Amino acid sequence: MPEESSPPADLAVSTEALSQFRGRLDNVLTTTQTAGLTPSLMADLRMDQANYGGLIPGMTQISHEFGHAVDRLEAFVRIQQDLIEALAIATLISQQGYENVEAENLERLQQIMAHLADDYTPPPAITDVDLHGTPGITPLP
């Protein structure tokens, strides 16, 4: 229970609503996994360069681009499923309180967050030059 000195919650949601929401998240995750939308399915889309016609330079580029696209799809599916799982665990924490959630769920949430930190590349910082152009040079209309 929150201490009396703690500020009131910004958002109050009933336990029933949280349970229903978590159930919907579990259904979405189960549906995507049973439909075969898994990282391993995306990895199975890979093809050897020989499938593209051997050493033809254009085909080599196509093979490289396709492999890159498959890598991105695989990561996207994994990240999507991890985020759905993390949201379900966060809902459980909100519903039951951090202390009352099984250690297995808390560890899984930490794993997901660590993987997200590894996967996320922040965009480059925006500089004054990016915003206003190079000083002394007038941009073209």
Total helical elements: 5
> Which whole number gives the mean pLDDT?
77
Strand content: under 5%
Helical residues, percent? 55-70%
**Shape estimate:** flat
Number of strands: 0
How would you characterize the overall build of this protein?
There is one protein chain. The protein is an all-alpha fold. Helices cover 62% and strands 0% of the residues. It has 5 helices and no strands. The protein has helices spanning 15-34, 39-44, 57-96, 103-119, 128-132. Helix 1 packs antiparallel against helix 3 (57-96) and helix 3 packs antiparallel against helix 4 (103-119). It is flat, with a radius of gyration of 23 Å. The chain starts with 14 loop residues before the first helix and ends in a 9-residue tail after the last helix. The relative contact order is 0.09. The model has no long low-confidence stretch (mean pLDDT 77).
Secondary structure layout:
Layout: H1 15-34, H2 39-44, H3 57-96, H4 103-119, H5 128-132
Helix pairs in contact: 1-3, 3-4
Provide a short characterization of the protein structure.
Helices cover 62% and strands 0% of the residues. By secondary structure, it is an all-alpha fold.
Question: Any descriptors?
Answer:
141 residues
